Amino acid sequence: QYKFRDLTIEEMKNVNKIYPNFTFSINTYTFKDGSQKDLLNFSGTVPVKYGNSYNIPIHLWILDSHPFAPPICYLKPTMNMGIAVGKHVDAHGRIYLPYLQNWSHPKSTVIGLIKEMISKFEEELPLYSLSPLDAARQSELLSYIANITEGDTDMKSKSKICGGKYEGCFNKITVVGAGDLGIACVLAVAAKGAADKVVLLDLSEGAAKGGTMDLEIFALPNVEISKDFSASADSKVVILTVNSLGNAQTYLDVIQSNVDLFGGIIPAISHYSQNAVLLVASHPVEVMTYVSWKLSAFPQNRVIGVGASLDTERFQYILTNLLKAQLLAKDAWIVGEQGEDKVPAWTSCNLFANQTEAMTARNLREKVANRAMEVLKEKGQRSWSVGLSVADLTDSILRDKRKVHSVSTLAKGCCNINSEVFLSLPCILGTNGVIEMVKLEEDPLVQEKLQSCAGSIHDLQQQLKL
């Protein structure tokens, strides 16, 4: 059942060489949503120096998407040990480390994880000795932890909603990335009111800063901030806003940094929310949507990019309200690439009495569209405006609105495009993402521009290391 079996076996062999006291087995792990999987796991002790020398018992579960998703780590205290809750350990013994949050294959390994675990435990010892009375009380907690990690979760303890169903029926969404765009998406989605719960997955290192800290201070209802991928479990929509902040020199290097970043995120996200729609807002959106599709192995309808959705809404608004061309606006779209290479297009071809009348109407439409494009080019893509657009897309998906949006979708087979590239095209969105692509009016110039966009994007993708 392991997707990368050979890589996993090889890594476990390396772990066994360095830590021969670890015992390996296959057991059932129960996730927060009650779903279960048989997973490879191992337990043993690691040496920690904290004044004296201690052997700290740990238990690691290896996910079936390993090595692209980090292990789930717990302490395994004996009856006479108490859990010292701290910044790296919670009351149930779950271990949280920067190494886990920043997990990225191939630089991240289980051996490297254990080394950081030892280092952090030497700064703050995670366990302490219990008195006999405390040890008796500890046994109840240990029993609870064992139930969580060994597949015997008491589902009665979960909150029931939606007529006896569990929280899987919630309209839950996760926003990955706590930068300006990520926070803007959280605020916009919360204001829209479509989601019952919004999780902001903050993958940055160190303590909460800036907007994340403000969100914690002012505590919006139904908004949770977490650094743990498992908090995203059972999301119906996962919005990706992260971008690499590395020191890349060339445009290709910048994109490759983002690809590497997604390599540590998408497998974990797709593991915890296997039926989610992935909505990509990271740059460049067409390429990163393609990368998300490849890394997740999700069907193409459930991986979309924000694409030209904001530009299209603005374009239609300009036509309707500034240029008073309401009849044109309802069939007007921005397609292709996000940015300078966006193309105005139309989804209906009106029937005219003769060719002259049709030519006159199209010339008029072209003039109006050119004026609208000039106004549109003056508009920037600020975080809050993109956030509003993302919230609108999310609302259409969660509420199954069957509304048409211009989003990045797999364009292969459209306009004689034969490569696997994502371009903005008008699509009907619903619960499962793209329901249907709306056919564009046949226009040789639009087709030529879309084919050119597809060619340049495909050439760029060929240079990336996935």
From TrEMBL:
Q: Annotated Gene Ontology MF terms?
A: L-lactate dehydrogenase (NAD+) activity
The UEV domain covers which part of the protein?
Answer: 1-131
Q: Which domain of life is it from?
A: Eukaryota
Q: Which reaction does it catalyse?
A: (S)-lactate + NAD(+) = pyruvate + NADH + H(+)
- Residues spanning the membrane: none
- GO BP annotation list: lactate metabolic process; protein transport
PANTHER family for the chain = L-2-HYDROXYCARBOXYLATE DEHYDROGENASE (NAD(P)(+)), UBIQUITIN-CONJUGATING ENZYME E2 VARIANT 3
What is its biological role? Interconverts simultaneously and stereospecifically pyruvate and lactate with concomitant interconversion of NADH and NAD(+).
By what name is this protein known? UEVLD enzyme
Its lineage reads: Eukaryota, Metazoa, Chordata, Craniata, Vertebrata
